[in-house]
């Protein structure tokens, strides 16, 4: 083969390789660089999805050099487990799962909202927690449904030993309640709304606001311990995305609901009803409450509950598992 032919063949091969790499390579950020993938877990409700829906629509991931691979989960404890195995980098948890980062199994990187979606529900005719004695009660263990049930029982001078408690995942509770396989449940909206379509006369025996003087019910975004300690750049960029999405959600509540509905492929009215059980916290308020110790008090109050409920042996300083400094300093970057 002549030198000319060799050079032509080499050039053709180089072009083919470049085209192949372009076809299978990663995405690019707004500056033309490659994007770093973030494995992110979420729950399919307004609390767990709204910021991800906003970040996707507003291209916030690309803005910060990231690409989100979002995976849906039914509860927080499953995400904490996935963080521990490295299958997730970040995730979302409700208040019932806060004992897991408090026990050292993950880090809280951002407080999200204050929830009021949890209920103890029962069949028509049951009007008090005391009437649940000996009844079969479904609950997703380690979740906010578990938390609201435990608090309601304590208030009534009862424990789970007074009931027939069955650990169930969220989807099972919906079908089990509708088919009368359980008498009551520690559960949450919007899933309760689904149950109401089949059992419209169910009763609500307890709700978050019944215990607001005792404990707050924040939701949060969490990260794997190794991610926070070993991938600080990725963590800081992710927090920056969450902060910008929070600012958009506060300024554009209706659009946030619409974007969430679009991401979840559900009616807007359903998400609007779900959002009505949520107190959105503006990012500047989260900064202030982090710095003045309010969030630390929330976490300590929850830890008191978890120790009493047997989830934690002892309390630990919230600063060991809430990376408040990372959250607030992201505002300056």
From TrEMBL:
Protein's name in the database: Aliphatic sulfonate ABC transporter substrate-binding protein
Entry's family note? Belongs to the bacterial solute-binding protein SsuA/TauA family.
* Record GO cellular component, one term: membrane
Gene Ontology terms, MF aspect: ATPase-coupled transmembrane transporter activity
Q: Which keywords fit this entry according to its UniProt record?
A: Signal, Transport
* Pfam families xref list: NMT1
Q: Does the keyword Signal apply?
A: yes
Source organism per entry reads: Kribbella sindirgiensis
What the entry lists under PROSITE patterns is as follows:
PROKAR_LIPOPROTEIN
Secretion signal span: 1-22
Q: InterPro entries this protein is in?
A: ABC_SsuA_sub-bd, SsuA/THI5
Q: Name the predominant localization.
A: periplasm
Q: Does the keyword Signal apply?
A: yes
Annotated SsuA/THI5-like domain ranges read 54-256
Provide the protein's localization: Periplasm
């Amino acid at each position: 083969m002549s030198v000319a032919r060799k050079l032509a063949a080499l050039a053709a091969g180089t072009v083919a390789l470049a085209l192949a790499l372009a076809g299978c390579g990663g995405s690019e950020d707004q500056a033309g660089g490659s994007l770093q993938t973030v494995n992110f877990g979420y729950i399919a409700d307004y609390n767990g999805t709204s910021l991800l829906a906003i970040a996707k629509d507003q291209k916030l991931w690309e803005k910060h050099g990231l690409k989100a691979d979002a995976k849906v989960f039914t509860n927080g404890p499953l995400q904490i487990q996935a963080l521990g195995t490295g299958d997730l980098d970040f995730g979302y948890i409700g208040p019932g799962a806060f004992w897991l980062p408090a026990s050292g199994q993950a880090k809280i990187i951002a407080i999200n909202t204050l929830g009021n979606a949890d209920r103890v529900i029962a069949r028509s005719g049951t009007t008090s927690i005391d009437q649940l004695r000996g009844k079969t009660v479904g609950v997703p263990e380690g979740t906010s449904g578990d938390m609201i049930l435990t608090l309601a029982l304590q208030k009534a001078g009862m424990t789970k030993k007074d009931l027939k408690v069955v650990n169930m995942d969220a989807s099972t509770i919906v079908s089990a309640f509708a088919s009368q396989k359980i008498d009551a449940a520690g559960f949450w909206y919007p899933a309760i709304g689904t149950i109401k379509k089949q059992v419209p006369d169910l009763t609500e025996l307890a709700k978050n606001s019944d215990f607001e003087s005792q404990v707050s019910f924040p939701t949060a975004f969490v990260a794997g311990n190794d991610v926070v300690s070993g991938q600080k750049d990725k963590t800081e960029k992710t927090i920056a995305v969450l902060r910008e999405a929070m600012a958009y959600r506060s300024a554009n509540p209706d659009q946030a609901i619409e974007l969430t509905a679009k991401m979840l492929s559900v009616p807007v009215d359903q998400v609007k009803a779900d959002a009505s059980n949520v107190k959105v916290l503006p990012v500047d308020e989260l900064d202030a409450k982090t710095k003045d110790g309010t969030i630390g008090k929330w976490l300590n109050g929850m830890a008191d509950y978890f120790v009493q409920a047997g989830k934690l042996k002892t309390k630990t300083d919230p600063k060991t598992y809430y990376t408040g400094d990372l959250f607030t300093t992201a505002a300056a970057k």
